[in-house]
Sequence to fold (397 residues):
Amino acid sequence: MATLIRVTGDWDLAEECAQDAFATAVTRWGADGIPRAPGAWLTTTARHRAIDRLRRARTGTAKEQELLMTMNDEPMFSSTDMDETGIGDDRLRLMFTCCHPALALDTQVALTLRTLAGLSTAEIARAFLVPEPTMAKRLVRAKTKIRNAAIPYRVPPAHLLPERTTAVLAVVYLLYNEGYRASAGADLMRTQLCEEAIRLARVVVDLMPDEPEASGLLALMVLHHARRAARVDVAGDLVPLEEQDRAQWDQDAIAEGVAVLDRAARRGEPGPYQLQAAIAAVHARAPTAAATDWSEIAGLYTLLIDATPTPVVALNRAVAVAMADGPAPGLALVDELVAEDTLRGYHLLSATRADLLRRLDRRAEAAAEYRAAIAAATTDAERRYLTRRLAEVTSSD
Fold:
């Protein structure tokens, strides 16, 4: 993809030709066997397809010649090439390539998630809390800018990696989030996505051991992943944190996450990922739900809001305040978010408000919020959990 974008200047053409190359490989490799250099085979096949497309369009003479020139003199992209980045992982190297600083940060992240992480436009839209048509338009505008501005897609040398690290970490983070809480479908978790995100974070930490936020992100994901076995029951239904069997938590993973976080914190440069990891560590260290230090968590969320002032962080802080000080103060903070109207349609806003109303014994209002949350939820596991909660507040004592 990076090679094709660079020499054609057309993201859509590059995407289509890459897909064609993989489709051809499915047929050819099944009959002829896997070639000695699969990556080179795919790149060459995709380039030939791009040349054919440009010829048919009768408008690609210059680009056609450029493609022909690169057929022999440009080295093929493969894991055996140790380029100037020093990155030995193909996918991560391409992530640094696609996170081009000429694009806005959100656009870098969205395009990389779409192209290299395999997330759909709908999944990316949910990650950014925007409607799918809005995200689709952003992606189209970004591709147009790449073409019209002739933005070069080349693997960056090592000294240019830092300016792209923020975007790459965001890509890895959102990839993990999609795995940890799937945005749609029957299953709550997509474990393979979580494990791939953790693998990529480990590579980044090895590459940049002095980057505390990379370590913070790794610690955050490892600490969350330590709870995976307890998050759903045998029927695949959601088990909330306070009801999880903590004996199922992976203590080795918790120890690793805490150690990684401690090393990052010693640099004295706290950032959003380190703060989120610190929150996860408070949960992980609590022997029981009742022993959780919610005041500390609320304080950490206050710091996180200063670093990342987003409505989702504010919603999480409201939950922490409710757990530390009671449901009424938490509900007041949630109602402020409702008034701001920045999380309209976000099912966790309705679910949180419903839970706080339930705890205040305002059952009719809680039922209405549970129904709204059920209507907006995107996974079967979450819908089943919310439906059980609705039944609790609507049943007669």
